[in-house]
Amino acid sequence: MTGPDGTPAPRPRRRTPEEPFEFPVAPMLDMSFQLLAFFILTFQAPTGESRIDLYLPSAPAALVAAPDSASTGRNRPVPGATSDLETDLVVRAEADELGDLVSLSLQGSDVPDADALAGRLRRYREQLAGEPVKVRIEADDRLRYEEAARVIGACSAAGVDSVRLAGSASEAGP
């Protein structure tokens, strides 16, 4: 057969019945369960996440200052931005080589443990009657996070309004 322009006409294609396509689910399920079993059996919980090192700043806090209006090069404190460094209660926490809490003191007097610290801070809070109680914790660099969290928790339990972290005064240098 030829077409109207004299070229041979294409043959009509014979249609073959389409075979139903089946997705092989069973082998894929077998493989996924094998992978799941492999990861469950070889999983080991990380032990390093249970200990977090807490690195505290070693530089002393600076006072807020603004340039003098006479441009003498001297700085004067900004009004309204008073420093609370003098009114903070200072808690010192020292650690041994392993990071365990060795000594704890509040305003220079020794405190046996975090519970006693909370009791003393409650008494300060009662004496100040309405004034905000602010605590600055000067901790040793080696102090473990769990120990530091225990001290911070004692401050929170006593109702302290503000807790600040600072490096140990002996580490700040000259």
Quick structural overview:
This protein has 174 residues and is α/β, with parallel strands linked by helices.
The name of the CATH topology of the domain at 89-174 is: Nucleotidyltransferase, domain 5
In helices, the fraction of residues equals 25-40%
Low-confidence stretches: 61-66, 68-85
Structural class: alpha/beta
Largest sheet: 5 strands, mixed
Strand order of the largest sheet: 5-4-3-6-7
The SSE order reads: HEEEEEHEHE
How much of the sequence lies in strands comes to 15-25%
Shape: elongated
Provide the CATH top-level class of the domain at 89-174.
Alpha Beta
How many helical elements? 3
Mean pLDDT: 76
Which radius of gyration do the C-alpha atoms yield? 36 Å
GO cellular component, one term: plasma membrane
GO molecular function, one term: transmembrane transporter activity
Region (Disordered): 1-20
Family: Belongs to the ExbD/TolR family.
Characterise the protein shown here.
There is one protein chain. This protein has three helices and seven strands. It has helices at 25-42, 114-128, 145-157; strands at residues 65-67, 75-77, 89-95, 101-106, 109-111, 134-139, 162-167. The protein is α/β, with parallel strands linked by helices and 174 residues long. The longest helix has 18 residues, at 25-42. A five-stranded mixed beta sheet has the order 5-4-3-6-7, covered by helices on one side. The model is unreliable at 61-66 and 68-85 (pLDDT under 50). The protein starts with 24 loop residues before the first helix and ends in a 7-residue tail after the last strand. Helix content is 26%, strand content 20%. It has a domain at 89-174: 2-Layer Sandwich (Nucleotidyltransferase, domain 5). Keywords: Cell membrane, Membrane, Protein transport, Transmembrane, Transmembrane helix, Transport. Belongs to the ExbD/TolR family. GO terms for molecular function: transmembrane transporter activity. InterPro entries: ExbD. It is found in: Cell membrane.
